[in-house]
Structures are given as C-alpha cells and as structure tokens.
Amino acid sequence: MDKTTKNYIKIALAGCLWGTLGYFGTRLKEHGLSSEMIAFARLFCGLLILTVFFAIKNPQVLKIDKKGLISCAVLGITSQGIFNLAYFTSMRIIGAFTSAVLLYTSIIFMFFLGTFLYKEKPTRKKIIAVCICMAGCVLGATGGDFSTLDTTIFGVLAGLLAAFLGAALLPAFAA
C-alpha cells in the first residue's frame, strides 16, 4: 500500500472516530457524567493513548523544553479544554445533532479569522463556499422548519463557542 492510500485511510479513520464523539458524549451523560468530566476524560484518555503510542514508536517526540511545555499547556487549556467544555455543554443542553451541526459553523469563523486576522483575500469561491456552509448548517439544524428546533440561547452560544475555538485551534496547530 502506498503512502497516499495510507494517508487517505488515516483521514477516513479520523473522521469516523470524530463522528463517534456525540454518541459517546451522550452515553456518558446518561451515566451521570457532567460536561466538565466528559471533557476532562476525553482529553486525559487522549493524553494517555498518545503518550503510550509515542513512547513506543518514537520516544524522542516526548522530549520538550520548558517553553514548549508552557505553550502546549496554554494552547491545550484554552483551545482544547474550553472547546471540549463548550461542545459537551452544548450537547447536554441542545443535543448531539444540533451541537454537531453548530460545530460545522467553524468554517465560517475560519473564513472571518483568515480574512481579518491573517489578511487573506476573500475570493468569490470562498464567499460562495461559506454561504453554502451556512445554508447547510441552518438546514441541517432545522430541516427547513424552525418551529421544530428545540434549543436554548445558552446551548446555541456554547455550540458556537466550540465552533469558534475549533476554528481558532486549527491555525495554531498548523503553525
């Protein structure tokens, strides 16, 4: 199997695992875990799995200086920690489906961050893509019928905060 095929398989696997987030979050909520505990458990389990994986595969990766450790801690707490807390809080209040749809608004936030913060040019293709994304999010959450939407402002704001942090998180990891 060539490297390109392996990379596509990894992307598909990552998407499948990401798709289970709502399912496991809902199941953990049903067992009495709070949004805070679910967010902590997700990050802690990820830390354990990645630490063991890299300790076996490439221990050199785990060596980090004090400045790098502080940067990772700040990024992890502000982006991943608050992102997970906001996402699972939204999921608890308005449900997994609507929270997942709101998370897809991160593309809209990425467009605005790129345009205003990183001075990227808002091309016609980007604007059309953002409009299609926005329409898809609205239709996905409502099915075209706003009367069936059972949400609260706090739940929607938590979902949008998660989307914003998701958008802000990707450029930080790409740098």
Walkthrough of the structure:
This protein is mainly alpha-helical. The protein is built from eight helices and no strands. It is globular.
Which descriptors apply to this entry?
175 residues, mainly alpha, 8 helices, globular
Sum this structure up briefly.
The protein has 175 residues and is mainly α. It has helices spanning 3-19, 21-30, 35-57, 66-94, 96-103, 106-117, 124-142, 153-174.
Order of helices and strands: HHHHHHHH
Distance between the termini: 30 Å
Strand content is under 5%
How is the main sheet built?
A: none
The number of distinct helices, counting runs of at least 4 residues, comes to 8
Task: Report the C-alpha radius of gyration, rounded.
Answer: 18 Å
Total number of beta strands: 0
Could you say which overall geometry the principal axes of the C-alpha atoms support?
A: globular
Which structural class best describes the helix and strand composition? mainly alpha
Taking pLDDT < 50 over at least 5 consecutive residues as the criterion, the unreliable ranges are: none
Mean pLDDT over the full residue set? 85
Helix content: over 70%
SSE arrangement:
Elements: H1 3-19, H2 21-30, H3 35-57, H4 66-94, H5 96-103, H6 106-117, H7 124-142, H8 153-174
Helix pairs in contact: 3-4, 4-5, 4-8, 5-7, 5-8, 6-8
